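Lecture 7, part B: from sequences to assemblies.

Below are the input chains for today's worked example.
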Amino acid sequence: MAIGVKVMKRPERDVSYVRATLKGMALTFKHMFEPKVTMQYPEEKSTADWSLSQRWRGTHRMLTDEQGRSKCVACGLCPQICPANCIKLVPGEDEQGNRYPLIYEIDEFRCIFCGYCQEVCPEEAIHVGVHYENAEYTRGRFVYDLERLQSQTHAVSTLWDPSDPRGE
Amino acid sequence: MTPEMKGFILLSVIKMLFVFTVIMIGVALLTLMERKVSAWMQNRRGPNRVGWAGLLQPAADGVKNILKEETYPALANQGLFFLAPALSFIPALLLSAVIPFAAPLPLDFDFSLGPLGRFAHHGPMPMVVADLPVGFLFVLSISSMGVYGIALAGWASNSKYALLGGLRASAQMISYEVAMGLSLIPVLLMSGNVTFSSIIHQQQAGLWYVLPLFLSFFIFLVSGFAETNRLPFDLPEAESELIAGYHTEYSAMKFSFFFIAEYANVVTVCAMATTLFFGGWDIPGHWDEQGGVLQTLVTGAAFFLKLMFWIFFVMWIRWTLPRFRYDQLMALGWKVLMPLALGYIMVTCTAIYGIEHLAGITSPKLEALALFGLNIVLGVLVFGLLDSGMFVRGSVRRQSTYEVTS
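Predicted structure of the full complex, as structure tokens:
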């Protein structure tokens, strides 16, 4: 025996081979008639005991005011805080001196879905959404422009609340 | 050529087409069944997207496999690499030719077919493609040909994993061939014949051989698992160690052929188990021996049911037991199953001699019952010893003879 080889002390007398095999086979046979746990995804997207978290951070959504304009005031905080540098913002100003985004683009491929943009936004304009079905046919379609961000309708993500850390 | 000869050829061609079609479709459906059974045993649903309840899944798999790119590894032996799937596929399919799948069909015809002349057939037609006089010896010899395909696939791939898988497969199949062959000698002793049809007739006269030759059946089944490279003996393709073993380098339809061969082998082993130990197409009672179209259909269904049960059993074992270690596999084959089979041959010889010549029992039913009694005693003994781990012991006893340092 080589030095340092640890020999496992396995039970010798109490082992069972035939009984253990039969027990295992009974178990697998029993499982054939138990309710199935598979969720049939495209048809059912949530079940009684499983649903997507309200804090899920998916692709973005820009909220709009009553006139259908984006709530964004182009303050520049979100591109500033974005760790992935995926937000492109060119601010503009109208005759009354209201700032609005001329260009607002989010590259969802670069985005790491940290949710800082939603956290930092003073106007509660940009949000990460509870949404995960993002398939597209071209890579270019993953750069969401302002119009697209505004037209999204999915639920927005709930921010983490320190007084309720588990989201209950 | 006589009309009878032409009739025989015509019927043989029809039976060949029938068996070939059934085996190919059946094997395709078995891949689905395997996935379904595994899913159910793990509380999943299994494939259910293509066709009703996933029934067209094998077709989708087939289309995918045909359309996929065929890859050849660099420095592979092209010829052998190409030949290997065929070499494992052909013997697997050949074996289905000798299994009788229903009671003989009474058939009488005599007709002319233009320039081909007269075709005639009279009397019962055996429902088997070729009722060979060499019977299960043919199965044993051809099934061991399958190892060439696997060993060559491993060698021609120019890959260390494939080579190891191929080597393991050949060592394993040769080892278990011994136990398998020996386990069938008691069947030969009981029936006095190796032909499948006469073995079935013997079982109709007496009892199904699983009762008087239970240990034989057990050894045959375990060796059958090893012969078909199914879990718990799927060492040749052990994923955790060898990626996919001998078919690591195969893609597309060539890979699929190995798969088909494996399932065809499973069907053959199950059909052998059914025929040799469960009466083949026999239904208890004498109704099925009268001969008739209905009898043929019902016995065919009976054979199919028994076969499906054993195929299910194979899958059941696969999704229950973990894989053996390689030394355990070899130890089980050479140190347990082979001596057990040899000892069982001796016991059966003695018992049959005693029953027939000393006790003077000639009725096959009584003889089978007497052997059944003997098998209960032997079974309790053998399974008791197996259960206590006296036969299949771990490495700990061998190690305990060394002094443990550190």
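Note for the exam: The longest strand of chain B covers residues 102-106. Keep this in mind when comparing with the next example.
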